[in-house]
Design goal:
19% of the residues lie in helices and 30% in strands. By secondary structure, the chain is α+β, with helices and mostly antiparallel strands. The protein is globular, with a radius of gyration of 19 Å.
Length: 217
């Protein structure tokens, strides 16, 4: 299941050198950034009301196609017993943290929330002090992984900047996370890609086998 944080930040190993076993092609500041899509913001809603909010957003978007606001609910795997005879059933349910993502520029989302949901506000990037804005090219693969393999995603307690120390910043060149930048960090004995996600540090498993290049400052 998706984890909200690490139980022990001390499980993270750091190294001054490039991570072992990672295919790095070298520095290249000419990588094609591609066409940027519309960014995303997010808010916290109690998990018991997240489903109702999602249904309301679907209804709004159907009635207002020209001003639709795409919505994505962060869900985690929950396990429950099928019946008295045993067996376990897996279900995707809104996470306890109640993360809800909305696509749109910050001012547009703020105006939308003010008009329709004044009780909610965009979460601020805790490093920048302004409403978080997540690039679409980061959000798209993130949503794909959360839908198909939510257990690969871990929200870390430590700020993203902490991982910059003694790590080399890399850019992913292959796979669905191509173009994303972050650090390969060993967490719980597994090499994971840690990247900035709206002010939070998020770790993704299963990315270390992709090709990387060093990010030029």
């Amino acid at each position: 299941m998706t984890q909200d944080c690490l139980n022990s930040p001390s499980t993270t190993d750091v190294s001054k050198r490039l991570p072992k076993g990672i295919h790095v092609t070298g520095a290249d500041d000419k990588s094609d950034p591609g066409i940027e899509g519309t960014p995303w913001g997010y808010l916290f809603i109690h998990n018991k009301t997240a489903q109702a909010f999602e249904n309301e957003m679907k209804d709004y978007n159907e009635k207002n196609p020209n001003s639709a606001v795409p919505c994505f609910i962060h869900r985690t795997l929950r396990y429950r017993q099928k019946n008295e005879k045993g067996g376990v059933k897996k279900e995707l349910q809104p996470s306890i943290s109640g993360l809800v993502f909305l696509q749109g520029k910050t001012k547009v989302l703020q105006a939308f929330l003010k008009n329709y949901y004044p009780q909610y506000h965009l979460v601020k990037d805790r490093c920048k002090g302004v409403p978080a804005s997540i690039r679409d090219k980061v959000m798209q693969p993130f949503m794909t992984v959360l839908k198909d393999n939510p257990e690969r995603v871990t929200f870390l307690r430590d700020p993203f900047e902490k991982f910059a120390k003694d790590h080399v910043k890399l850019r992913v060149l292959t796979g669905i996370f191509a173009g994303c930048e972050g650090y390969i960090v060993r967490i719980d004995r597994d090499r994971q890609l840690v990247f900035d996600f709206g002010g939070y540090a998020v770790a993704i498993r299963g990315v270390h086998k992709e090709d990387f290049e060093v990010v030029e400052k």
